[in-house]
Each structure stands twice: as C-alpha cells, then as structure tokens.
Amino acid sequence: MANIIDGKAISAAVRGEIKENTQKFIAETGITPGLAVIIVGTDPASQVYVRNKRRACEEVGFYSEAYELPEATTQAELEALVDKLNADPAIHGILCQLPLPKHLNEESILLRIDPRKDVDAFHPYNVGRIMIGNQKFLPCTPAGVMELIRRSGIDCTGKECVVVGRSNIVGKPMAMLLLQANGTVTICHSRTKDLSEVTRRADILVVAIGKADFITGDMVKEGAVVIDVGMNRRADGKLTGDVDFATVAPKASYITPVPGGVGPMTITMLMQNTLTAATEAAAK
After folding, report:
1. Which residue, 15, 37, 55, 205, is most buried by CB atoms nearer than 10 A?
2. pLDDT of 177-223, one tens digit each?
3. Which among 53, 159, 221, 251 is annotated as catalytic?
C-alpha cells in the first residue's frame, strides 16, 4: 500500500515557515505584506475560496483586502479597481478570482495586473520567466505539487514524469517545473493515443484532467508516485480526485489523497508568492 502524502501536514509546516519569515521581514522593513483578492458575482465555491485566503493571510500575518463585486460589474469598473490596486504600495499581490462572468474579458484583466503583483503567475511575463527557469512567482497549484514531492523525499532527477492535462493553470507549468527538477517529462491530453501505455511508463504521475476517478490501477506502474490534482464531486456529494484511489493506492509507492492532498498547498503557495512580491518590492 502506498505512503500517503499528507498535504494538510505539509501545508501547515510551510505556513509556519512563511509566518516566521513574515515576522522577520516586518521587523526588518516595517512593511506588512498585502494581498488583494477580487471576486465578481456570487459563485459559492469562489466565495469559500476567498474566505479561506483571508484566513490564510491572518494566519501568516499579512494585510488583506477583499473586493466582492456585483455580477453586473462592468469591464471598465473592474479595470479601474485593478489600476487602483496596481498603484497602491500597501498591496503586493493581486488575485482576481476566476472564472469571471461571461460579459467580462478575463484575458484583458489578467494582462492588466502588474506582473510584479501577479501572485497567481498568470501574466505572460511571468509565464515566460517560468519557461526559461528564471521565475519570481510560480503558479500556486504546480508549486504546491513540487513542495509535496520535495518534502516527501522524492527526487525527480532522471525519472519518467507524466502529466495528464495541459491547462495553462496546472498542466503546462507543472511540466516545466518537473523539467527544471531534472525529470524527463511527457504531457498527455484528450488527443493522446494509448494513454494507458504512456501513464504506465511514469515513475511520477501527475493527474489534472478534471474527470472523476479517471486513472485506474491498470494505468499505473508498480511503485509509481501518483499526485492527484483533481477535485470532483460525486453524485453522493463526496469529493473525489481524478485518480481512483482504491485501485491505484495498492500499486503506488506514494499517493496524494483527495481531499487533503494537493488542495491545502494551493493557498499556502499563494502566501509564499505574496511574501516574495513584498520582499522584491522592498528591495527596490
């Protein structure tokens, strides 16, 4: 049976380190790291996520602002808010909760955020820095995955690493980070032929495809490290990942559960990015 990678425990340890480093930073500079979160509309999942971010800021000692805007907010109004936050020296990180209502242009808003405050690492400037391995910020979920791998004592060097999913938020940056860690990386997607054959080659398998229990035991190599980024809700209301835990865990050497695996790390890495942004701003 696989070793369970405890995302809650690792997240708590990382947050403790961030809190300690924040206290040192405030003592040395007199500056409190500040994060602004924008949410447009009343999506319940997004509202929960925003509340969790606010709590995380309190936990590590950050200043935070939350802007909960009505569904009918116009593009001009949202752009004006982003411009205001870009110019505010007390705010070091800006996060606009996605998805936005359909009448708003997401790409335009993400481009408008100052890259130095883009703590989601979605701006093309920061994406480009990741591509060349000279990043300031890392996308929060892939960064959280790498932290789980490192803190579990797993070395990616020379390993066959397979990423299932090619989104800009997880799949593509995940592949880049595994490559930077000296893994040999394959990206799979909906058009991949003989997907099972590819996933069975993986020493490290990262799954971010958005389909409940999609990866089953027969698709996994004996002794593989399996990282499940998925978060899906079954008909009975229970959360499940993209990996069928019951059939995969007996074959894997390490596996992340859902919930309690990758999920807790995402907001934690957002805190790390915000501290990095504040540190960079103070150095100028």
Report:
1. 205
2. 999 999 999 999 989 999 999 999 999 999 999 999 999 999 999 99
3. 53
For the chain, what percent of residues have pLDDT higher than 90? 91
What domains are defined for the chain? 30-116 (3.40.50.10860), 140-263 (3.40.50.720)
Has 75 been annotated as catalytic? no
Q: Which of 221, 205, 222 is nearest to 156 (CA)?
A: 205
pTM above 0.85, yes or no: yes
Is omega for the bond preceding 259 within 30 degrees of 0, making it cis? yes
Q: What is the pLDDT of residue 48?
A: 79
The string of pLDDT tens digits covering residues 23-58 is 999 999 999 999 999 999 987 777 777 888 999 999
Instruction: Quickly list DSSP for 172-228.
Output: HHHHHHHHHTT-EEEEE-TT-TTHHHHHTT-SEEEE-S--TT-B-GGGS-TT-EEEE
Residue 93's pLDDT is: 98
**Listed residue (265, 232, 254) closest to 141, CA to CA:** 265
Q: Which among 6, 120, 213, 228 is annotated as catalytic?
A: 120
Token pair of 259 as six digits = 């919930």
Tokens 């103070």 -> residue: 282
* Residues 134-145: tens digit of each pLDDT: 999 999 999 999
Residue 97 among the catalytic residues: yes
Distance separating alpha carbons of residues 250 and 37, to the nearest angstrom: 41
Q: What is the 3-state secondary structure (H, E, C) of 119-167?
A: CCCCCHHHHHHHHCCCCCCCCHHHHHHHHHHHHCCCCCCCCEEEEECCC
Active-site position among 6, 97, 117, 172 = 97
